[in-house]
Design brief:
single chain, mainly alpha, 2 domains, 0% strand
Length: 523
């Protein structure tokens, strides 16, 4: 029997919580879906293994040696998940401080907070490394099969990088909490997490644009410019790459260093855990000091009031930054490419415009879900003296204007460089944004705004349709700018996909039922 308050007891409790969160995210808490999820997940992993084998088939694996170009390439591929794991760990730690309602209960018990902190941070390290390991597994396994089992050392190396990323996230988050306080940390930690997660990808793309004129990360990692400025092959910075390629001593060094860093971090910060959690949990409570602001009533119509209400709710959302900022940061490389190519040839537009189109569609889908399905006071809105159509229109206008505020400056700069490309970009951005918003309208369902991270569980069809719509509209824009007639075929394909999505949507079924009822009453 497991003794309560022991480390193993806390570990099992954390495992149950993590499993429930994962199951809820994948199945929307609908019973009987566990076996189906396992079958679908296994099929996807098998397909990814086949794709990895096909991609590696044309590479001369026997010639792979730990020379400088190979070490630079492998190090680049390891730095990408390292930045993403650090971002995910920072967001998970922030949410653990502010959103886990069970922490106050556990801390009020005789259980030692140090054990809880150790288990909680280890669980975050496992979860942040787990996704990277799953995504990397097909390539690692195929390399181990075709080139030797030494590649399996990549698994402990990646997990060690996850522990190092979690250690850095713990120190950074707790440092911000100590210096900035709990209220500012919740906002700033989300911004820092988004910047860290997208920082490496964006930084590599910016360097690639500045040095070789391309946005391709792979081309930059293989470029002579990077190889000339990189340290020699015997530098310690390549230890993770050497370990992932099968060097036992390098892999062991990385693992020992990561475990030591993680243990030292826990030893330095465990004593502050209980104080931070209790202080973070009290920031949303009313302290008795109410700020009285002057309320002015204007002659603005109901539509203007509703739009203002939606904008205010979006700005007040506590976790909106971490959910959408990374999408906005990925607009920096195309903006830099526009500035870098100002006055030069316009071939970069074939790459820049599709990125803007896809980002606009994804941002519109996120904001549309928050405005349409994430209404926290539906009864209040329903009983308001406005028509339901006015409410929906105001929500859609708020979403479209928010996206336009972000995308319009990029399209204006594009218009100065290439008016034709800007016009095509405007048309495809409008189509992508409207498509994503309409899909959210067709599949709207009442949910809490806090469930935004799991919004894909409400309707898999809506999630896939929104993703394919953004991708296909981006492809349409790129082909149209390039002068390819295939743009017409892709646009017809996306319109057919939207028509099919409407046909199977609950909105169409509800509309058909209302029309049949009206006909029956008329007859």
């Amino acid at each position: 029997m497991i003794r309560p308050n022991s480390t193993l007891w806390f570990a099992l409790h954390e495992a149950r919580i993590s499993w429930r969160d994962l199951y809820a995210m994948l199945s929307a808490n609908r019973p009987g879906r566990g076996r189906r999820i396992l079958l679908i997940g296994g099929a996807i992993l098998l397909a990814l293994h086949f794709l990895a084998w096909a991609a590696l088939k044309g590479i001369g694996l026997a010639t792979i040696e730990p020379d400088l170009p190979t070490l630079v390439m492998v190090s680049g591929f390891l730095l990408l998940p390292l930045s993403l794991m650090a971002s995910q760990a920072m967001e998970s730690i922030t949410r653990a401080f502010y959103s886990r309602s069970d922490l106050e209960l556990i801390l009020a018990s005789p259980a030692p907070s140090r054990k809880l902190f150790f288990v909680r941070m280890l669980a975050i390290a496992l979860s942040t490394s787990g996704l990277t390991l799953i995504v990397s597994a097909p390539v690692i396994n195929m390399l181990a099969i075709t080139d030797g089992p030494a590649w399996l050392l990549a698994y402990p190396v990646i997990f060690s990088l996850g522990m190092a990323a979690t250690s850095a996230a713990i120190l950074l988050t707790m440092g911000m909490f100590t210096i900035l306080g709990p209220k500012r940390t919740r906002l700033i930690a989300q911004i820092v997490a988004a910047v860290v997660g997208a920082g490496f990808v964006i930084g590599v793309q910016l360097l690639a644009i500045a040095s070789i004129g391309s946005i391709s990360r792979l081309a930059f990692l293989q470029s002579e410019t990077l190889l000339k400025s990189a340290p020699g092959a015997d530098h310690f910075i390549y230890l993770p790459a050497l370990g992932a390629m099968g060097d036992v001593s390098a892999a062991l060094t990385v693992c020992i260093a990561a475990v030591a860093l993680f243990a030292l971090t826990l030893a330095l910060t465990a004593g502050q855990y209980g104080h931070i959690v209790l202080k973070a949990g009290s920031i949303d409570q009313n302290t008795g000091t109410t700020r009285h602001s002057r309320i002015s009533f204007s002659d603005a119509g109901a539509a203007a009031v509703l739009r203002r209400k939606e904008w205010k709710l979006l700005l007040r959302d506590k976790w909106l930054i971490s959910q959408t900022l990374m999408q906005l940061l990925y607009l920096i490389p195309p903006a830099f490419m526009l500035w870098n190519n100002y006055g030069d040839d316009h071939s970069a537009m074939v790459v820049v415009i599709p990125v803007i189109i896809m980002a606009a569609g994804q941002l519109a889908g996120s904001l549309a879900w928050l405005a349409i399905s994430g209404e926290d006071a539906p009864e209040l809105v329903t009983t308001a003296p406005v028509m339901p159509g006015q409410v929906i229109r105001a929500k859609v206008e708020a979403v479209l204007s928010s996206v336009a505020f972000v995308v319009a400056p990029l399209l204006l700069v594009t218009a100065l460089l290439a008016p034709r490309a800007a016009l095509i970009g405007f048309a495809c951005v409008a189509a992508s944004v409207v498509s994503a918003t309409m899909i959210q309208l067709w599949f709207r369902s009442q949910a809490k705004r806090s469930s935004f991270r799991r919004r894909q569980t409400s309707s898999r069809v809506a999630t896939l349709s929104e993703a394919f719509s953004s991708i296909l509209w981006a492809g349409t824009g790129g082909m149209w700018i390039a002068g390819s007639v295939a743009a017409l075929a892709v646009s017809v394909l996306v319109l057919c996909g939207l028509a099919f999505t409407w046909w199977i949507s609950p909105a169409r079924q509800s509309f058909s039922a209302r029309r049949a009822y009206s006909r029956q009453m008329a007859s």
